[in-house]
């Protein structure tokens, strides 16, 4: 007997949130095979589309965003072919494609998909007798997209709304609230409010860890890294070095799957050691050389190793 879809989704979500990607990949493969054997076409579509979505999330998290777009587009087209159309599920795929394009640095394309998702969700909610609104998570993700388009005021206004709405939910979605704080910290960092940015990144990490999530997930590592970057900009070199080392200790576990994240931590720690005159043994150069190796592993065409954006642009949007 095939388990009900919600049971599958809960299990997938758990594996994804604890970053058990090898196990999740195996589960998805088996699930797709099982779906092909189902006689009930609607159920087969539900399971297949949901599995494609989670596979896309895995691909995006491991820097294979082109494959993520392909998988989400396939799932989206399956949902478009349904009659009647399931507006909420379509809106979800439109949002997924939006942040895929964010990670791919196609931010104008991303905002178009966010706008599609917004319209779809509002129409669906009205049809179902609910308020003419979109999910808070969509607002938060749209705020992040607006940031990368340089629309900082709009982005900050929307992420503040998202944080308030997450806080007011009956059951606190601490993971999404943590992501919202991370987005806010990124905006504050870019607009030179470094102390505020540091506080936001620290709060994002606290929320994540308070939700009993694994410390080895790339998101808390991203929070620690960003805090280290801010401390470095504030001239708190020793604290920055400690934070960057802490982040590096986490990303070494994901270095094969996530070379861009590991490379930028190596590069930034190298920079911090040089700034702090803490490089008596030449460690900074070793770190920089290692960073270049991992960056080329992710993008063989990359040659500008001294540019921070060379690293940042390859990191998934969720913890960039």
UniProtKB/TrEMBL annotation:
The lineage of its organism: Eukaryota, Fungi, Dikarya, Ascomycota, Pezizomycotina. This is Uncharacterized protein. It comes from Akanthomyces muscarius. InterPro entries: TPR-like_helical_dom_sf. SUPFAM superfamilies: TPR-like. It comes from the Eukaryota.
């Amino acid at each position: 007997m095939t388990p009900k879809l919600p049971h599958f989704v809960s299990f997938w979500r758990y594996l994804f949130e604890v970053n058990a990607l090898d196990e999740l990949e195996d589960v998805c493969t088996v699930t797709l095979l099982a779906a092909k054997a189902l006689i009930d076409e609607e159920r087969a579509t539900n399971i297949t589309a949901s599995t494609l979505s989670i596979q896309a999330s895995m691909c995006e998290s491991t820097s294979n965003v082109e494959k993520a777009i392909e998988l989400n587009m396939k799932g989206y087209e399956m949902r478009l072919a349904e009659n009647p159309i399931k507006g909420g599920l379509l809106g979800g795929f439109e949002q997924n494609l939006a942040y895929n394009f964010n990670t791919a640095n196609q931010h104008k394309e991303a905002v178009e998909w966010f706008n599609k998702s917004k319209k779809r969700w509002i129409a669906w909610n009205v049809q179902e007798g609910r308020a003419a609104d979109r999910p808070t998570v969509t607002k938060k993700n749209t705020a992040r997209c607006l940031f990368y388009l340089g629309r900082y005021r709009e982005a900050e206004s929307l992420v503040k709304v998202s944080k308030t709405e997450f806080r007011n939910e009956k059951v606190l979605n601490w993971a999404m609230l943590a992501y919202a704080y991370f987005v806010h910290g990124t905006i504050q960092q870019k607009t030179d409010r470094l102390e505020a940015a540091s506080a936001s990144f620290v709060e994002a990490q606290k929320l994540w860890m308070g939700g009993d999530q694994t410390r080895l997930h790339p998101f808390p590592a991203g929070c620690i890294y960003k805090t280290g970057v801010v401390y470095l900009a504030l001239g708190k070199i020793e604290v920055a070095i400690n934070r960057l080392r802490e982040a590096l200790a986490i990303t070494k576990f994901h270095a094969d799957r996530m070379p861009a994240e590991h490379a930028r931590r190596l590069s930034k720690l190298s920079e911090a050691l040089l700034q702090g005159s803490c490089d008596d043994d030449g460690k900074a150069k070793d770190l920089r050389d290692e960073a270049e190796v991992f960056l080329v592993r992710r993008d063989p065409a990359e040659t500008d190793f001294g540019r921070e954006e060379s690293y940042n642009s390859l990191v998934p949007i969720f913890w960039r």
